[in-house]
Task: inverse folding
């Protein structure tokens, strides 16, 4: 338990994490070990080492290989997920996905813990420092640009689906060697829905909500016509069908997964990035809504995995990555307010996990060495055979 | 500008008591690094509107800084001095706008990857200060009470799961007159130990009758102020470039009078209430968040001897735009979700109480309103135990203290 800090540094800045006198690195290791122990007990995973390597992936299939990345949105803590008392909130991860996955217990994010900038860091492999709340592209090349430029892929082969209004620039960077014309297509389902309903919002308001920590204003990408063009030409959805289906959904992330399924069926991109965000309702301080968000995200991750397995374009040749952009503040830090925010920068909010499953991945192993969230892009680069030359991270040998 | 250039006349715009206080310590402040001084001035500038416990803490901290030798000052603040700041930060008016400086400093620390170093410096400073100036023990052991579950017949999940390991769980509490018994006990403590802002009653709904010796804040009574804050938020959120940080900065400038708290019966409490609604996330829209955050801030700032928090059902979740809109309709409530929120809120109230001096002597009671379940924590209550004894809340309180 921590005592209060003196008033001069008690709020806003200095945040005291006092789990004994441990360094942040030691705390990260402790979280990882605990997570590993939970998984070995509950999901029956074996402890892996880099010697395990991955399952051989035939060279002939590399070109057909697809990768789907899901950010387990908004960040969730172990006590509401992998700890014994939290496992009831993630039944699909625990029973269905983790037993099939290679699970990394210690993924440390050393960057800025804001959702847009952290997701941009995940997508570039560099700790970006752009303003989290401004409509700015990442400064370093994104995974989508490396993928498309190196492998000469068309614009239809890389897509981002993001529920938050603020993610409209995530698809391509401002880097002069990459940038315009080389990025991913970005679909903001809420923009699509707003364009489709054009006025009568009352039946759909629950799908349009943002929360406290997302930019409150986001410029449109290209006006209503652009959104409707995406809907009809790319997703092959009529406005009426889209509206009718949307009415059956209960949250922005459900709307995103609906769009993802449609995208997979109609376009079948080789690189697909989905950011979930429902969990971030936690910023409003209602614990029940935060837990509800975790349960929904758990279910939606399983639905995406089922779609991957059932769609002919994806089945047997797709690797799925699931990882949070970062965690949330610990109850032990007097500077924070527990689950509500991710403002303290304490070890719990920085130490997350990652699971990889599907094509080329050894099942049922857990790795607890430290890796960084910037390692994702170089890892996928090594899998798909492109070079993430500006990324700071390193490929994970366990997946190669 | 750097602290070494500080002069007494630069504090002209500070409120009277703050000005008087800070001018006694200009010499000490001149020796401190810029990465530290604005954080201290942020507390000093609000000195006139602080609770007694906070005033004492600020006075002691300044007195301690004034007593340090040059060598000690260097040792205490070496890590802060190593933090690299930008010329832009140095140019800010950190004397008159220390809070804005601290926000900018925070962003700078994140961006330049110096946050961990700053945390380490802050932790070391806090440890030294606590050792040099130990906190005074309270005149009587603290007592916290949380009342949860208003409007719920039966919970979906077992209650008090996080608190149970720390105390005794009672499953056959007689609920009759429970609220009155607990409010009477708060009043009795307030009369027996009359300390300004020492005994609080926070209600997430409309407050019940309470004794005038008790400081009371309720979500219901603040409705006009909440609506004024929501109007302000609504007016800003659609502006280009507006995000949570900009909105927070803007709301931080709100004053009690500007939000309709014109009576100014108690300027300190008025300021506190405005901060609850302008600095807390979700306090404007969810009563459960309001009650938990109010308890946290009351404990952190006023360090009360007694704190009773009664959670009430919050409105059902709606899209943010709708939640931010003022509505004359009675909102649809979510009692079951609110019980889950309040159960966690009670745990946080206990955690925050345990951060105060003499925590080992404190006691805490959480009760499922109008039902037979309660958890009692205190030095005399066995941890992790369960009791089926039939008892009323008066008896439980007597066993705890």
Result:
């Amino acid at each position: 338990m921590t005592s209060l800090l003196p008033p001069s540094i008690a709020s806003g800045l200095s945040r005291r994490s006092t789990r004994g006198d441990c360094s942040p690195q030691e705390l990260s290791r402790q979280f990882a070990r605990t997570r590993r122990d939970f998984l070995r007990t509950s999901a029956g995973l074996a402890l892996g080492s880099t010697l395990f390597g991955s399952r051989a992936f035939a060279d002939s299939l590399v070109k057909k290989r697809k990768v789907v990345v899901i950010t387990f949105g908004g960040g969730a803590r172990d006590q509401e997920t992998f700890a014994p008392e939290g496992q009831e909130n993630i039944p699909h991860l625990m029973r269905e996905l983790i037993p099939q996955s290679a699970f990394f217990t210690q993924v440390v994010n050393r960057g800025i813990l804001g959702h847009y900038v952290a997701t941009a860091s995940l997508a570039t492999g560099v700790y970006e420092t752009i303003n989290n709340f401004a409509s700015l592209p990442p400064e370093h090349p994104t995974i989508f640009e490396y993928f498309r430029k190196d492998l000469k892929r068309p614009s239809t082969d890389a897509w981002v689906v993001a529920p938050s209004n603020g993610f409209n620039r995530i698809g391509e960077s401002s880097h002069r060697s990459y940038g315009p014309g080389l990025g991913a297509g970005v679909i903001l389902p809420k923009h699509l829905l707003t364009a489709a309903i054009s006025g009568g919002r009352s039946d759909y308001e629950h799908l349009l909500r943002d929360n406290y920590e997302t930019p409150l204003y986001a410029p449109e990408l290209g006006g209503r016509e652009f959104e409707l063009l995406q809907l009809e030409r790319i997703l092959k959805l009529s406005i009426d069908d889209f509206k009718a289906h949307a009415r059956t959904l209960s949250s922005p992330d459900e709307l995103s997964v609906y769009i993802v399924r449609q995208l997979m069926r109609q376009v079948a991109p080789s690189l697909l990035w989905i950011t979930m965000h429902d969990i971030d309702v936690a910023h409003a301080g209602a614990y029940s809504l935060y837990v509800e968000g975790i349960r929904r995200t758990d279910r939606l991750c399983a639905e995406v995995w089922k779609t991957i397995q059932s769609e002919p374009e994806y089945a047997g040749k797709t690797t799925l990555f699931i990882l949070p952009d970062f965690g949330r503040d610990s109850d032990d830090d007097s500077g924070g307010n527990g689950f509500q925010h991710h403002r303290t920068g304490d070890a719990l909010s920085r130490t997350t996990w990652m699971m990889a499953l599907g094509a080329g991945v050894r099942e049922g192993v857990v790795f607890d060495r430290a890796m960084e969230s910037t390692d994702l892009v170089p890892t996928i680069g090594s899998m798909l055979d492109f070079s993430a030359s500006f990324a700071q991270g390193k490929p994970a040998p366990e997946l190669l | 500008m750097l602290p070494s250039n500080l002069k007494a006349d630069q504090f002209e715009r500070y409120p009277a008591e703050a000005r008087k206080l800070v001018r006694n310590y200009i010499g000490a402040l001149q020796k401190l690094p810029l990465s530290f001084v604005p954080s201290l001035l942020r507390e000093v500038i609000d000195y006139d509107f602080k609770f007694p416990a906070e005033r004492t803490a600020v006075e002691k901290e300044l007195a301690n800084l004034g007593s340090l030798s040059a060598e000690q000052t260097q040792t205490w603040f070496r890590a802060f001095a190593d933090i690299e700041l930008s010329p832009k930060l140095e140019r800010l008016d950190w004397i008159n706008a220390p809070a804005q400086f601290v926000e900018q400093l925070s962003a700078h620390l994140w961006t330049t990857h110096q946050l961990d170093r700053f945390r380490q410096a802050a932790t070391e400073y806090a440890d030294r200060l606590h050792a040099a100036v130990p906190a005074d023990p309270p005149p009587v052991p603290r007592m916290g009470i949380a009342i949860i579950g208003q409007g719920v017949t039966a919970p979906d999940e077992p209650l008090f799961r996080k608190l149970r390991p720390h105390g005794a769980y009672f499953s056959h509490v007689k609920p009759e007159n429970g609220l009155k018994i607990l409010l009477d006990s708060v009043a009795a403590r307030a009369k027996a130990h009359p300390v300004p802002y020492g005994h609080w009653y926070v209600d997430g709904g409309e407050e019940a009758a309470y004794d005038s010796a008790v400081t009371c804040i309720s979500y219901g009574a603040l409705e006009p102020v909440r609506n004024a804050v929501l109007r302000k938020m609504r007016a800003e959120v659609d502006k280009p470039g507006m995000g949570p940080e900009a909105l927070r900065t803007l709301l931080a400038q709100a004053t009690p009078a500007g939000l309709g708290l014109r009576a100014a019966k108690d300027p300190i409490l008025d300021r506190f209430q405005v901060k609850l609604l302008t600095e807390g996330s979700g306090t404007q829209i969810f009563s459960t968040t309001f009650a938990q955050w109010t308890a946290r801030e009351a404990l952190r700032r006023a360090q009360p001897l007694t704190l009773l928090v009664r959670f009430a059902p919050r409105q059902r979740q709606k899209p943010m735009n709708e939640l931010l809109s003022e509505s004359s309709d009675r909102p649809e409530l979510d009692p079951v979700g609110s019980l889950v929120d309040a159960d966690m809120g009670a745990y946080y109230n206990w955690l925050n109480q345990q951060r105060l001096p003499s925590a080992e002597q404190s006691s805490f009671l959480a009760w499922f309103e109008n039902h037979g379940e309660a958890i009692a924590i205190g030095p005399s209550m066995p941890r992790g135990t369960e009791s089926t004894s039939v008892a009323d809340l008066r008896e439980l309180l007597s066993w705890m203290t």
